[in-house]
Amino acid sequence: MNSPLKSNLERLECHFTWDLGQNRNELLKMKRNMEDVDQETCTWLVHYYNLLGYIHQALGSSTEALMNLDKAESVIQEQGTEEAGVRLQVNKANLAWVYFHLGEMEKSKEYLEEVERLQGMHPAPPGCTLHPEVSGEKGWTLMKFDLSKKHQAIDYFKMALKAQPDRKEWHKGLAMVMNMEFAQSQFTPEQIVEQLKIAHEKDPNSLLLHAHYLLKLSENTEREMQDLLERTLETGNLEGLHIILRYYSKEISYDKALQIAERVQEKFPSSVLASKLLANSYKWKVYKMEGSEEKEIFARKAIKLYEEVVRHNPYSYKAKIALASMYRYVNNMNRSDEIYQQLLSEIKDLSPERQQHIYYNYAFHLRDCRQYDESIEYHMKVAKIPSDSVDKQKSMKILQKTVEKGRSRHCEEILLILERINISD
Fold it and tell me: What's the CA gap between 121 and 115, in Å, rounded?
């Protein structure tokens, strides 16, 4: 390989210069999720195509990577904003890397020279180690990956905003990542609401941002949320629909949220997202019903939709877990166990947080099957994984209660696990 060229490419610090540590299944799942995005209504197209380019390159599909990077460049040129020159730096740096991996050194060198020319025309502001366009693009990419990567995204968005405090893309990215569950303990509710407000004001066309902002306000917002729902139905942009449904289920009723989900799915019957959200609504209806004969009816409705979702996206482990839980409610424990066995057979390829989520849910499946000792063993597996997730905290509470009762043959081992966790903390 051409070492001087590679060294020069590594200095660019764009998408293809660093390993995100994703395995093939993770990348395939993300690719399928990205393909579900409606490109006509997407408000982050440049990031979308650049990220798809990265994913295809990581999967070894250089032709697809080039095609998506070309689309990103077309969008930048069409937008014709004053940032076009700096935005092309990231895009052309990625193109340089793809051609490098293809072994087309002359083309790679040409793109590298073009990037260096653009850097000379649009240098990084004083005091910035990276151009804010590079920092912000990294933030968008990292936000889509696992927990540790999302933490880094916050830093990159803040770095970009120091240099470009009015840039709406960086405000939107920071607001989205601050509002994620893992990050909420790092910020006060007021800080999150303020960042969502700023991002919404700078990008009022983002229905997703608007929905998040209204949900956080959680007061006197029903009229605004209804208006947002009508805009969603009118435009077909469903990216904020899950937030709208969360609002209605939390502030109005689960039945109202379910009615809305049915209305959306009826209007967009070919939308996998609409089907998944309606399946989720049926699932929560089942969870909330007590001893009703209708429970099985709604569980079967959810099963039909989840099966469709899983066929479309076989890498969606959350949809599979939901599907397994619904099969329990129609007394088909064999099918439920079959789904979990498949998930467990593939678990080594998943991130620590996803492994914990599967183990945690399987523990409850085993409990429902009256396999109590085996259930505790899977909560122990959750606790042993170093990553500090919500599922781990919940499993640890169950293990603590198990020790307090003192009836499990695993009590001694559980104490050792809890002690090790406390020491490491």
Answer: 10
